[in-house]
């Protein structure tokens, strides 16, 4: 039986019922919160495994909730929102969200995102000795064993997906990684909006590791194909 506890933060009753019914059918435990204040209370009181968060809540904007939760917890937060502009996604990801699912969404995609998040959590808890190495490229350093990345000896505050992207690129330095390879590696599937989400995550990652994101030093874009980690002296 799946014992993960999911907090569903959604003010729309029909959407909330759809999500909770799906979770119950697939043997997830769940809590619900119809507004931001309840979300913060439930998160601090019950420490759920994953939060599914709508941004358009009646009392507090979802981005502010992410920021508040991030002051004390690294719990995975998957945004589920009707806001589909890249700027909205970037704002949420910059605040600390781990993933972004745009409404309307399919039940299958929601379940896939949950499975990927669970796998990622499991992998972070199990580090094999073979992975206990440090990657250095210019002023960028990735400590795979510790699950941390540094630039100029200062720790980078990356979301789990940003860190996974960085690891994929650094482990394949000099190689062009295709959109399909990256989306399959991150989400385990290639949904229609995955390439758009990949572009957003890459933009937020670049903002954190590139001195000039518009003239990248580390991550090179191959238009229509994918991305490549460049060797830096």
Automatic annotation (TrEMBL):
- Give compartment(s): Cytoplasm
Where along the sequence lies the DNA-binding region? 132-231
Print the keywords alphabetically.
Cytoplasm, DNA-binding, Phosphoprotein, Transcription, Transcription regulation, Two-component regulatory system
Q: Which SUPFAM superfamilies match?
A: CheY-like
Q: Which residues carry this modification: 4-aspartylphosphate?
A: 54
| Domain Response regulatory, chain residue ranges per copy | 5-118
Residue ranges of every copy of the OmpR/PhoB-type domain listed in the record? 132-231
Q: Which InterPro entries match?
A: CheY-like_superfamily, OmpR/PhoB-type_DNA-bd, Sig_transdc_resp-reg_receiver, WalR-like, WH-like_DNA-bd_sf
GO MF terms listed in the record are: cis-regulatory region sequence-specific DNA binding; identical protein binding; phosphorelay response regulator activity
Its GO CC terms?
A: cytosol; protein-DNA complex
Q: What is its main location?
A: cytoplasm
UniProt cross-references to Pfam families, sorted A to Z: Response_reg, Trans_reg_C
A GO biological process this protein is involved in? positive regulation of DNA-templated transcription
- What this chain does, per the record? May play the central regulatory role in sporulation. It may be an element of the effector pathway responsible for the activation of sporulation genes in response to nutritional stress. Spo0A may act in concert with spo0H (a sigma factor) to control the expression of some genes that are critical to the sporulation process.
Name assigned to this protein: Stage 0 sporulation protein A homolog
Q: Which organism is it from?
A: [Ruminococcus] lactaris
The major lineage groups are: Bacteria, Bacillati, Bacillota, Clostridia, Lachnospirales
